[in-house]
Design goal:
Layout (H helix, E strand, L loop, with lengths): L3 E3 L2 E3 L3 E6 L3 H6 L9 E6 L3 E2 L5 E2 L2 E2 L1 E2 L1 E8 L2 E10 L3 H10 L4 H4 L5 E3 L3 E2 L7 E7 L2 E7 L7 H9 L9 E3 L7 E2 L5 E8 L2 E9 L2
The protein binds zinc ion.
Length: 204
């Protein structure tokens, strides 16, 4: 089983729960409808990787940089960043046919996570960015999320139990694109203009 790090504690998520279509600009870029109910899907523990891959079984992967939270005792206790890796062509085919998304979203290596820092009451507003080879490619701001972290936690909890270590990924802002091998992906998370964490991965 794969683990994540919350400060110095190791936790083993049973699942990663992801929100789709949480930023208007990203909904527009993929020509999706704004949902009347939160779009949620899961990645199992086996989807977590330490290595960022540009492809899986011959399919190209696309990055989505997302604000992430760790759950413990049914509460959000840690915050970090992750890449939701997606087989966009496969996903489009599945969407068009009304089929489940697992083949496009839940394969091995479909999520890479930063370390997590402790969430405090002072952290009410987050900004984050993805740089690829030092160029800013994605920028996120929690003000522009259709669903805020606490309401996501509440909605998931209404129908699915969250275990200690489970991760919630809150959706991607605009600017998604293809992972290219040998590129350096660097993510940074800010609250109240203060940098909380930075992490980088080199795509394989
Ligand atoms: Zn996503």
């Amino acid at each position: 089983m794969h683990s994540i790090k919350l400060v110095s504690e190791k936790l083993t998520p049973s699942k990663v729960v992801c929100v789709g279509r949480n930023y208007t600009a990203h909904i527009t870029e993929l020509n999706n409808e704004t949902p009347d109910q939160m779009v949620l899907f899961n990645k199992p523990n086996s989807a977590i990787t330490d290595t960022l891959f540009a492809a899986h079984n011959g399919d190209t992967l696309h990055y989505e940089t997302e604000l992430c939270f760790v759950v413990k005792n049914k509460k959000l206790v840690g915050v970090g960043l992750g890449l939701d890796l997606t087989k966009r062509t496969v996903q489009s085919k599945l969407k068009n046919k009304g089929l489940p998304w697992e083949r496009a979203k839940a394969f091995d290596g479909s999520v890479i996570l930063s370390d997590f820092v402790e969430l405090t009451d002072e952290m009410q507003h987050f900004k984050f960015e993805l740089k690829i080879n030092n160029e800013v490619i994605q920028q996120g701001d929690s003000h522009f999320m259709l669903y805020k972290p606490e309401s996501i936690l509440q909605e998931i909890s209404e129908f699915m139990s969250l275990e200690d270590g489970d991760i919630i990924m809150t959706g991607t802002p605009a600017g998604v694109g293809e992972v290219t091998a040998d590129c350096i992906f660097k993510v940074a998370l800010y609250t109240n203009e203060q940098c909380l964490l930075e992490q980088q991965w080199c795509a394989n």
